UniProtKB/TrEMBL annotation:
It is a multi-pass membrane protein. The chain crosses the membrane at residues 21-39, 51-72, 79-98, 104-122, 134-158, 170-190, 197-224, 244-270, 330-363, 375-404, 416-434. Belongs to the nucleobase:cation symporter-2 (NCS2) (TC 2.A.40) family. Azg-like subfamily. The keyword Transport applies. The keyword Nucleus does not apply. Its main location: membrane. This is NCS2 family permease. It is found in: Cell membrane. Pfam families: Xan_ur_permease (PF00860).
Amino acid sequence: MTAKIMNYFQVKELGSTVRREILAGFTTFISMAYILFVNPDVLGASGMDKGAVFTATALASAFGSILMGVLARYPIATAPALGINAFFAYSVCIGMHIPWQTALAGVFVASLIFILITILKLREKIIDAIPNDLKHAISGGIGLFVAFLGLSQGGIITANKSTLVGLGSFSTPTTWLTIFGLVITAVLMVRRVPGGIFIGMALTTILGLFTGMIKAPGAIISAAPSLKPTFLVALKHVGDINTLQLWVVVLTFLLVTFFDTAGTLVGLATQAGFMKDNKMPRVGKALASDSTAMLAGSLLGTSPVGAFVESSAGIAVGGRTGLTSISTGIFFLFALLFSPLLAVVTSQVTAPALIIVGVLMAQNLKHIAWDKLEIAIPAFLIVLGMPLTYSISDGIGLGFIMYPITMLAAKRGKEVSPMMYALFFVFIAFMWILNID
C-alpha cells in the first residue's frame, strides 16, 4: 500500500520523502492557520456567526487542500482568500447593504460559473497563453507580496500617514520577536539546515512563550462551533440574485478569484520547478480542485476559496507532491478540535517565514528579459503592483494591460497571442468595475 502511494505521488522521482512531505504540509498549515481566526473576524462584520465561519473555514480549507493533493498531486493548499473576504463583508454587505445570505448565494453562483469555464478549459488556455517572462514576474511579484505581508504582520512595517508606510516601532516587544525569528531563520537557511523555516518558527514560538509575549493556551481541546447558522444558506437565497448590481457582485467574485488563483498557481508552480515548456502539468486538475473547493466553501458558509500563497512556505521546506497539501488538509481537520493551541502561532511567528519565502520566490525575477523594455515594463508593473495594491489580481491586471501596448510599440504585436489581447480588454473592464464609485 505504501509503495502504491509513493508511486502515485512520485515521491522518490521528485526527490522527496514522506517525512519531508508531512513536515512541509505542517509548515504550510502553520503559515496559513491565521485564516481560521482572521476569516471569522472579517466575515463577522457582515453579521455572519463567527463560530460557524470558523468551522466552515476549517472544513473548506481541509476539503480543498486534500482534493488538490489527491487529484492534482500538487503541494498547494487552499483556503478562503484574503482580500475577497473583505470585499464580501465591507463592500458588498456593509457598503451595498446586501444581506450576507444573498452575498453567500453570489459566491455559490460564481463558483458554478467557475466550474463551467474550468470544464471548457478556458482557464487552462489563459494560463498557457501567459508569456514566460510574465509568469516569472507573477512568481516574483507574489514573493514581494508575501514578504510585505510578513513585514506588516510582524510589525516591522506599519502604516504611516505621511509616507503611506514606514518602519514600525521598535519599542513594541512583539516586533523584536519577529526580528529574532527573521535572524534565526535567515541563519538556518544560509547554513542550509533542513527544515530551517519550520525550526525558526518553533524557536520563535518557544521564545514568545518563555518571555510572555505569547500567552500559553488555557485549554488544549475544544469542541468545534456549530455549522448550522451558515450551512446550505446559499442555496436558499440563489433566487435573490435578480438585479444588475448583484450580477456585478457575482462577476467580481468570479474575476478576482479567477486571477488570484491563476496567478498563485503559476507562481507556486514556478517556485517548485513544475513548469515545463511554459506550461503547468495537470493544470486542469488543479483548477478543477480549487473551483470545486470554492463551491463547497459557499455551501459550508464562507467567502471564495482559492489556492493559498502561503503554500510557498511548505514548498520552501521541500514539499513537492500532493502529500504536502493532503497533510495540510488533515491538520485543518485536527484544528477543529485543537483550536486553543493555534493561539500560540501568532503573526509574529509566521512573519519571518513569509519574509524568507518572499526572498526565495523573488529569485525568479532573474529569468526576466530586463534588457527589453517591452517586457521589462509590464513585468515591473506586475512585480511592484502586487504589494502596493495589496492584491495579486490587481498587480496582474496592471501588467497585462501594459503588455500588448509595449509589444505593439516595439513592433512585436504579432508575438502577442489573441488570448493576451482579450485579457487586455477584460482587465480594463475589471479595473473599472472594481474601482467605480
